[in-house]
Design brief:
This protein has 563 residues and is of the alpha/beta class. It has 16 helices and 28 strands. It has an 8-stranded mixed β-sheet with strand order 8-7-6-4-3-1-22-23. It has a 7-stranded mixed β-sheet with strand order 9-10-11-12-13-19-21. A hairpin with a 2-residue loop joins strand 11 and strand 12.
């Protein structure tokens, strides 16, 4: 294939700069800036989730680049409503001027409203502008057009930007599903028209580049789940990603066909159902839903439960069902649990632990490992990725949304298809494209992850200390000095997580206390008169002894009093 020369608009003033802030070199936390002249437009602003338990809910991208250019940010444009594309938006908006508009599909914006409300934003505090496919919108010197794509969430779009370097197509997350339950296919005709016009740069989803062929149609998943529910003689619990509204709609039809009532178990699935109902993407019969509080009194063969928590998130509905601690429902042997989901990389161990808990209960467990038809990915496989390149026929190509392995593999695929100007970039590597010049890495900007808990950002130092406490524990020194700076009472050292009590903890702590007394007596008068000086001397003395006797270097906290 020989891509045609670019015929997109170019005013010759400047090149286009692509600045990935998240999602390149990793899975999730997708966020990218496009910059030309005096204007910056952001595409998506997502979060990623922790793989360790340090008291972190999510991570969002570092916004140093955005903060440094906030007077030039003209808009944020969203491709769809998944958390790894919208979850970081409240944190971003806190750094931007109030008049920066947010464009996106109506369903994504309804979910954004919920996130903004959680962060204290009023109804009209942020300008949310719904977009429709094949219409054009302006943001500073950029114009952009949403293009319908199928994905594992309704109302997803790709974006075609008209820039100083020509047409830039960002696929967002996509697949080429020939039979989506809502009937909204990827708009291949419009993508081909843009290819005829001349696409200067294609930014394309790399997530499933290792998967050959084509992805499974969502409609076939509905058929597989209907067979399972129809055969079941007891309760059926479907664990799934709450955002998959098309699957929710199919399960509602399954419930009606099998004369079961539908129950939504988990806050996230209830939130997504409300959002989809508000924008007209989901309608349940008025008598279909049953409140979770009624589950215990319903016949086991007359209920179909949809539960969130497929990644074994702590305190999620599925985890509590597996542990037998859910306050509203206790499963019985023979009940059917279907995990209609994939395991996100990094979550393997907790998910398999949850599966083991279900199996020990005598649950009839069905997963993608035992019943391949119960889940379909929302991301394009290699054949579909190839088709996207062939439709757009880009002059240049940059793979997005994936680890470095995925990006390199997708870049190789683009070269195989005939694109000669291909560049792999990771977060922070600024890619520059002129109207006719080849792609080039022009600079590097500061990137990284910011941890959050309950809506608040956590400083890096807090996370480092939590990790160190987890590795080596914490020792606490209680010290009382008199007015001359001498020890007024024997120091006391206690520990948590450093050494087991049966391993001689008391002896170790007594040795640390003696070392503290000795260090104070040997310190000069200037040090003993300063709280900061005493604290540092005591901290180092206690830690040296503990490390010498245990091999661990705990965090040492000093509580100093003077009498």
């Amino acid at each position: 294939m020989s891509p045609p020369p670019p015929r997109g608009p170019s005013n010759g003033r400047s090149s286009l700069r692509v600045v990935p802030l998240g999602g390149l070199g990793e899975i999730g936390m997708n966020c990218m800036a496009l910059e030309q002249g005096d204007d910056v437009v952001l595409v998506d602003c997502g979060v990623t989730f922790p793989t360790t338990d340090l008291g972190i809910d999510t991570y969002h991208p570092r916004f140093d680049y955005v903060i440094g250019h906030k007077d030039r940010v003209r808009a944020v444009v969203l491709t769809h409503g998944h958390e790894d594309h919208i979850g970081g938006l409240p944190y971003l908006l806190a750094h931007l001027d109030e008049d920066v508009p947010v464009y996106g599909p109506a369903h994504a914006l309804e979910l954004v409203k919920h996130r903004l409300a959680e962060h204290g934003y009023g109804d009209d505090e942020v300008e949310l502008i719904p977009v429709a496919p094949r219409k054009t919108y302006e943001a500073g010197s950029f114009s952009f057009e949403p293009i319908r794509v199928t994905h594992s969430i309704v109302d997803a779009v790709a974006l075609a930007f008209r820039t100083s370097a020509g047409i830039v197509v960002h696929t967002g997350d996509f697949k080429l599903d020939p039979t989506p339950p809502d009937g909204e296919l990827t708009d291949e005709a419009r993508l081909a028209e843009l290819g005829d016009e001349g696409v200067s740069l294609l930014l394309s989803d790399s997530t499933n580049v290792d998967s050959p062929g084509r992805s499974t149609s969502e409609l076939s998943v509905g058929q597989a789940l209907e067979e399972i529910v129809t055969r079941a003689k007891t309760r059926v619990i479907i664990g799934m990603f709450a955002s998959n509204v098309q699957r929710l709609a199919m399960l509602a039809k399954v419930a009606v066909a099998t004369r079961r009532r539908l129950c939504l178990l988990g806050r996230s699935v209830q939130t997504h159902v409300r959002a989809a109902e508000i924008v007209g993407r989901l309608r349940f019969p008025s008598d279909l839903l049953v409140p979770p509080e009624h589950l215990g009194s319903m016949p086991r063969d007359r209920v179909l439960i949809i539960a969130s928590g497929t990644q074994a998130e702590r305190m999620s509905a599925l985890v509590r069902l597996a542990a037998g601690t859910h306050p509203l429902l206790r499963l019985d042997p023979g009940d059917v649990v279907v995990l209609s989901s994939r395991i996100i990389p990094g979550n393997d161990r907790p998910v398999f632990d949850m599966m083991g808990d279900f199996l020990r209960m005598g649950i009839d467990l069905k997963t993608g490992l035992t019943d391949r038809g119960v889940h379909a990915s929302g991301h394009a496989h290699r054949e579909e990725q190839t088709r996207m390149i062939e439709l757009c026929r880009p002059r240049s190509f940059v793979p997005v949304h994936g680890t470095l392995h995925h990006l390199v593999r997708h870049a190789a695929l683009a070269r195989e298809v005939g694109v000669s100007d291909v560049l792999v970039a990771e977060n922070g590597e600024v890619v520059e494209l002129g109207a006719r010049a080849a792609l080039a890495k022009a600079a590097r900007v500061t990137v990284g992850k910011v941890a959050t808990y309950a809506g608040d950002e956590l400083p890096d130092e807090v996370i480092r200390e939590r990790a160190q406490i987890g590795r080596s524990g914490v020792a606490m020194v209680s010290l009382v000095l008199d007015r001359r700076g001498s020890v007024a009472a024997p120091p006391r050292v206690v520990q948590r997580g450093v050494v087991d009590q049966e391993e001689g903890a008391s002896e170790v702590m007594r040795a640390a206390a003696l070392a503290v007394s000795r260090a104070i007596s040997e310190a000069d008068g200037r040090t003993r008169s300063s709280d900061e000086g005493v604290t540092e001397v005591v901290r180092l003395a206690a830690r040296r002894v503990i490390e010498a006797k245990t091999g661990r270097r705990p965090i040492v906290v000093v509580a100093l009093s003077r009498v």
